[in-house]
Amino acid sequence: GGPAVPGPTPPADDRRADDRGADVIALHHASKTYPGGLTALDRASLTIREGELVAIVGPSGSGKSTLLNLMGTLDRPSSGHVEVLGHDVAALSDRRLSAVRARWIGFVFQQFFLSPHLTALDNVANGLLYHGIGHSRRRDRAAEALERVGLGKRLDHRPHELSGGERQRTAIARAVVSRPRIVLADEPTGALDSASGAAVVQLLRDLNAQGTTIAVITHDPQLAGSLPRRVSILDGRIRHDSMAGTAA
Ligand code: ADP
Ligand code: MG
Questions:
Q1: pTM of the prediction?
Q2: Would the ipTM clear 0.90, i.e. be above it?
Q3: Which residue spans traverse the membrane (predicted)?
């Protein structure tokens, strides 16, 4: 196989701000130009260290999702470099990149993307497909993950039988059932009322406190302001990073 992927590290609360973990995501002058010629991301440089909880903020169309997709290896840059967990994305085949992504990165989206005909349990268990884990163990792990997001009594409910907040918590359980090192959330509270949104944010905080590195795109200034680091984007360029200049 290729480069070794580092194993789990101690929880974030074992570290001080000046003693943060290794880089888990690094973009170096990464640009993305879509077919048609629009440059949605323009020479973005950004480093995220293990254990961080980062808000990505900016107006609609500013390039936030494009940035998150590069960070999550869902897309490749048109120019510049992206490194995720020590892998130079350009050096990996699509197949190898998918394997790294499936093992180490969990995604949460505004629209949940749950399978409508599957129960919460089966939706979450599907987060363990291709992990070499048998069916009954997948269901056990899924039940545990749903317990952890407060949905232990909703295992057999289908998405239409869940509230918006419960659907998003199910999606979070699916994202983390494989114990990823990185969770990337694209407007996870965008479709929720404020109380459900607050519960989702609290879940992300809890995950982060247990050691998961998290980046969350948000439109909500209150949410962004409550997170330890904010990266703002305008017109495809990173304009401000509240962590930049901090001694590492
Ligand atoms: P945000 O998430 O901040 O709203 P996006 O990263 O989704 O912004 O989009 C940035 C710009 O890139 C927008 O102008 C958008 O229309 C364009 N864009 C996004 N995805 C594509 C795509 N797949 N093909 C062409 N243009 C795209
Ligand atoms: Mg977006």
A1: 0.91
A2: yes
A3: none
